[in-house]
Amino acid sequence: MGTGAIRLSEGMSDVPAQDAGAVSSRQGREPVALGLILVGLVALYAPVLIEYGALFLWSEDDNHSGLLLLLVLFGYWQDRKAFAWTATSREVGYGAAAILCGLLLYFVGRITDSVQMQGVSLPAIMTGLAMASGGFALARRWLLLSTLLIFIVPWFGPIADALLVPLRLGLTHSAARLAAWLGFPVSTSGVFIYVGFVELNVAGACVGLRAMVSMTAIGFLFLHFFPARSLGAGLLFVVLMPMIALAVNFLRVFGLIVTTAVAGVGGEAFMHDVAAYLEVGIVLFAFMLLGKALGPRAEAA
User: Fold this and answer.
1) Each residue of 75-130: pLDDT tens digit?
2) Which domain holds residue 53?
3) Which residues fall within 8 angstroms of residue 211, CB to CB, at 6 or more apart?
4) Domain annotation covers residue 267
5) Most exposed among 19, 221, 223, 261, judged by the fewest C-beta atoms under 10 Å?
6) What is the pTM of this model?
């Protein structure tokens, strides 16, 4: 009886040892699999960044898309502890299907030279990778990050951009009227502002549709970093985002007018370059303050 008990106890001790070995083997393969995933993503999208980065991501007309990409990548990195290999076989199948669809979009985009199709393939692949590794839970957790990747590439051409002409006109005339009320020699004609003998053209880069869309997408990204305390607070954040972007853009146009009146063409050229980056910084800071104000309240000690 004693010998049987000993053998039984030895058999029971073998099971955890085998499970531990399987877990250890799986943990050893996981970093390799993650490394292969990262290498594959770099191999796919590094050529896209090289070919189109200077044209779309960092150009003066749409310099917010590059910032959006960096913030989304930071979002993934900040939430990297949520990455886990817990998907079921059914979730792996759904994830593989999403990855296959993304690769098909990428292939068609490459052979047709369509940056839009190549761009939309990235969120499809990222969603598939999340589902195939962490299941539906991880795919839902990273759904906002994956969706915002769509707005990295330009989806709106000159025809859609022309829809904002009334907005540009209203913004330009309002800034010019304020400057004239303060005593500066300013007049307007269409999207042209005349400051003394200097003519300024408020181009689409100042209030372009692509810039508005990318900045709004960045605002939604702040909901990932600073979750709203309620649905109403989240909706208020969404409503205030474009208002903040327009208000800061108004200040940018007004600053260009005043700088031109005070320092001439040389001052306007300098201010134009500086204001493009200053505007982004102010908008991001305002989004951060708004996100904290509408986020969960700290519990009293």
Assistant:
1) 899 888 888 889 999 999 999 999 999 999 999 999 998 888 888 899 999 999 99
2) 2-57+80-141
3) 61, 62, 63, 64, 205
4) yes
5) 19
6) 0.70
